[in-house]
Design goal:
It comes from Cryomorpha ignava. The protein has 251 residues and is mainly alpha-helical. The chain folds into two domains: 176 residues, Up-down Bundle (Rhomboid-like fold), CATH 1.20.1540.10; 29 residues, no CATH class. A hairpin with a 2-residue loop joins strand 1 and strand 2. The N terminus and C terminus are likely disordered.
């Protein structure tokens, strides 16, 4: 019997720990830049360069402005909470693979400039949650991902090369990593959530089906039978009447 899913403030807080740590690191790095006047952009990911390999690991913690930082922080918290809440056994490895796959693909194919920001991971989480939610029939997760995508500036337009100042390649490869992982992990981790009211309906249905098996036996021409019927128990009653003798036709 599936177990009902329960929610508590403790579980919600636990699901926020890792995304909160990531966002905190993003803010600390940016505040150091802001207070010291330093520019850490050269530590970002520069495709096809040896020094740019470091950027695969540093890229999500570097941001160019307050708006850039805030626009990545909020969806990182929301989507990060969602993946740790709904897919706790897959969350860490999914996050790491999005981080590495998106960064490596960007390093191989991106434009020759410094790429910074956590939006590649954000796109990866959104794509994973959306597709994984539909594949597992967990529509609440898919709807949450879509809501975040539409609220934060129509994120999906960010995978198109419409603004030369935006790393659309980072968005694209992060999103693709999320899609790939949703398919790879589609049969792993939790499937469709089952809630208490669903279990009660299932138990009522089982009791109904068990009751419908109590079909009373009836006699038909002296032979005992037990009809197989679906629904409430039904008692069949037969009556017999002798056939009268044939009569003459009247004109």
């Amino acid at each position: 019997m599936p177990q009902a899913q329960t929610y508590s403030s403790k579980s919600i807080l636990a699901s926020l720990m890792v995304p909160l740590f990531i966002v905190l690191a993003m803010w600390i790095v940016f505040l150091i830049e802001f207070e010291t006047g330093a520019n850490f952009a050269h530590y970002g990911l520069k495709p096809r360069t040896l020094s740019g390999l470091l950027g695969i690991f540093t890229i999500p913690f570097l941001h160019g402005s307050w708006s850039h930082l805030i626009n990545n922080s909020i969806p990182m918290l929301v989507l990060g909470w969602a993946i740790f809440k709904f897919y706790p056994t897959l969350a860490i490895k999914t996050l790491i693979w999005i981080y590495l796959m998106g960064g490596i693909w960007l390093w191989i194919s991106g434009r020759s400039s410094y790429h910074i920001g956590a939006s590649g991971i954000v796109y990866g989480l959104a794509a994973f949650l959306f597709l994984s939610g539909w594949l597992r029939r967990e529509k609440r997760v898919a709807a949450l991902s879509l809501l975040v995508a539409f609220i934060y500036g129509g994120m999906w337009w960010g995978i198109l090369p419409v603004d030369p100042t935006i790393s659309w390649e980072g968005h694209f490869w992060g999103g693709l990593a999320g899609v790939v992982l949703a398919f790879v992990y589609r049969k792993k981790g939790p499937q469709k959530s089952v809630y208490k009211w669903e279990l009660e309906e299932e138990e009522d249905e089982l009791e109904y089906l068990e009751a419908s098996d109590d079909i009373q036996k009836v006699q038909v021409n002296g032979l005992e039978t037990q009809p197989t019927l679906q629904g409430n128990p039904v008692k069949l009653t037969y009556s017999f009447k002798p056939t009268p003798p044939a009569e003459e036709s009247k004109n």
